[in-house]
TrEMBL record:
<dbReference type="InterPro" id="IPR002363">
    <property type="entry name" value="Ribosomal_uL10_CS_bac"/>
</dbReference>
<dbReference type="InterPro" id="IPR001790">
    <property type="entry name" value="Ribosomal_uL10"/>
</dbReference>
<protein>
    <submittedName>
        <fullName>Unannotated protein</fullName>
    </submittedName>
</protein>
<keyword id="KW-0687">Ribonucleoprotein</keyword>
<keyword id="KW-0689">Ribosomal protein</keyword>
<dbReference type="GO" id="GO:0003735">
    <property type="term" value="F:structural constituent of ribosome"/>
</dbReference>
<dbReference type="InterPro" id="IPR047865">
    <property type="entry name" value="Ribosomal_uL10_bac_type"/>
</dbReference>
<dbReference type="GO" id="GO:0015934">
    <property type="term" value="C:large ribosomal subunit"/>
</dbReference>
<feature type="region of interest" description="Disordered">
    <location>
        <begin position="177"/>
        <end position="238"/>
    </location>
</feature>
<comment type="similarity">
    <text>Belongs to the universal ribosomal protein uL10 family.</text>
</comment>
<feature type="compositionally biased region" description="Low complexity">
    <location>
        <begin position="183"/>
        <end position="238"/>
    </location>
</feature>
<dbReference type="InterPro" id="IPR022973">
    <property type="entry name" value="Ribosomal_uL10_bac"/>
</dbReference>
<dbReference type="GO" id="GO:0006412">
    <property type="term" value="P:translation"/>
</dbReference>
<dbReference type="Pfam" id="PF00466">
    <property type="entry name" value="Ribosomal_L10"/>
</dbReference>
<dbReference type="InterPro" id="IPR043141">
    <property type="entry name" value="Ribosomal_uL10-like_sf"/>
</dbReference>
Length: 238
């Protein structure tokens, strides 16, 4: 079973390969510590980090990252340049350093997902930097634009000169220029008002008064008969 330290190192190398814009393998045989420090400092402005790993771990990481073309080059003292930036500047820095250290060798690498040989890395170093290429492109466009601007400005000026010369030629030939005709004022049309008949219907309100009749109700008085008194009894004869 692999030790956790080795597993972590393989994962680190794999992630660096996958996240880099380009990867270049070099052989640092015979270089001193100070020379390696100078190389790292020269690569830093190009966004490049130079790292040294064990080849066995680097080969395993290359296989996991799907860049098997790097595996045969992972032999001997190998330093890997992980480029996150301008690959042209990094290639120039490697080329310039190789001129000062004869034992330093560029093996090859990956540019994106494409394998590049040592010769192609050298060709990459000959390419103009990105800023210079952009300046050249801008200069190539600037010339035609300036000419076009001058042409557009000359069109109305030349047209005015041509019209003026034509008028002067006609006057010199005795031709009278036409006078401007006065503008005729158009009278507005009169419109007769339309008669609108409005029929007004008078409203008649008929109010009928209903006479009120009062019936007199006569009340007949009721006769009350007096109650009869009992007859007085005669005294009995003795």
């Amino acid at each position: 079973m692999a030790r956790p330290e080795k597993v972590a190192t393989v994962a680190e190398i794999r992630d660096r390969i996958e996240e880099s814009d380009a990867t270049v393998l070099t052989e640092y045989r015979g270089l001193t510590v100070s020379q390696l420090a100078n190389l790292r400092a020269a690569l830093r402005p190009a966004g490049t980090d130079l790292k040294i790993y064990k080849n066995t771990l680097a080969r395993r990481a290359a296989n996991e990252a799907g860049v098997e073309d790097l595996v045969p080059m992972l032999q001997g003292p190998t330093a890997i340049a992980f480029i996150k930036g301008d690959a042209v500047l990094a290639a120039k820095a490697l080329r310039d350093f190789a001129k000062t250290a004869e034992s330093f060798v560029v093996k090859g690498g990956m540019l994106g997902s494409r394998f590049i040989s040592a010769a192609e890395v050298s060709e990459l170093a000959e390419v103009a930097p990105r800023e210079e290429l952009l300046a050249r492109i801008a200069g190539a466009f600037q010339g035609p634009l300036v000419k076009a601007a001058g042409l557009f400005q000359a069109i109305p000026r030349n047209l005015a000169y041509g019209v003026k010369a034509l008028i002067e030629q006609r006057v010199a030939n005795g031709e009278a220029l036409p006078e401007e005709a006065p503008a005729e004022a158009s009278a507005p049309e009169e419109t007769s008002p339309e008669a609108v008949e409005v029929e007004a219907a008078p409203e008649t309100a008929a109010t009928e008064a209903a006479p009120e009749t009062a019936e007199a109700v006569a009340e007949e008085p009721s006769a009350v008969e007096p109650e009869a008194t009992p007859e007085e009894s005669a005294p009995a004869a003795e």
